[in-house]
Amino acid sequence: QVQLVESGGGLVQAGDSLRLSCTASGRTMSYYAMGWFRQAPGKARDFVAAIRSSFDSTYYSDSVKGRFSISRDNAKNTVYLQMNSLKPEDTAVYYCAATRKIVQVTTRAAYDYWGQGTQVTVSS
Q1: CA-CA-CA-CA torsion sign (80, 81, 85, 89)
Q2: What is the pLDDT of residues 81-119, one digit of tens each?
Q3: What percent of the chain has pLDDT over 70?
Q4: pLDDT tens digits, one per residue of 31-52
Q5: CA distance 56 to 34
Q6: Is the pLDDT of residue 56 over 90?
Q7: CA distances from residue 63 to 1, 12, 50, 54, 89 in whole angstroms, order as listed
Q8: Using the 8-state DSSP alphabet, how is residue 67 labeled?
Q9: Do 49 and 64 touch, CB atoms closer than 8 A?
Q10: 9-40 burial: b if 16+ Cβ within 10 Å, else e
């Protein structure tokens, strides 16, 4: 079992930056691919970014590419999502997820463990 806890959300203005953190416990995070997803009110939970357990390959949705950056610190069992140039449409609950799978890490179905989420609100 892996427990995930997100932090770092908040209320910011358009153009601001935020860094989300997700700390894992229960298992060594280095064996897991880690992902960030987000869910706006009334919408599906969508893929945002992912980072593999090996070689640190990263993946991004088109809507955040060039503005968001995912990274991991295995020594701290923590994955980060650096969000720059935030837009009102980035407003959502952001969820951290973990998987041992090595394929389809951009899909929600690939992930076995989820955090409770952290709210990000971007005002215009």
Answers
A1: negative
A2: 999 999 999 999 999 999 998 788 999 999 999 999 999
A3: 100
A4: 899 999 999 999 999 999 999 9
A5: 10
A6: no
A7: 31, 19, 14, 25, 10
A8: T
A9: yes
A10: beebeeeeebebbbbbeeeebeebbbbbbbee
Residue 54 pLDDT exceeds 80: no
The 3-state DSSP class for residue 116 equals coil
The beta-carbon contacts of 45-53 under 8 Å, at least 24 apart in sequence, are 45/95, 45/108, 47/106, 47/107, 47/108, 48/81, 48/94, 49/81, 50/105, 50/106, 51/79, 52/102, 52/105, 53/102
> In 3-state terms, what secondary structure has residue 105?
coil
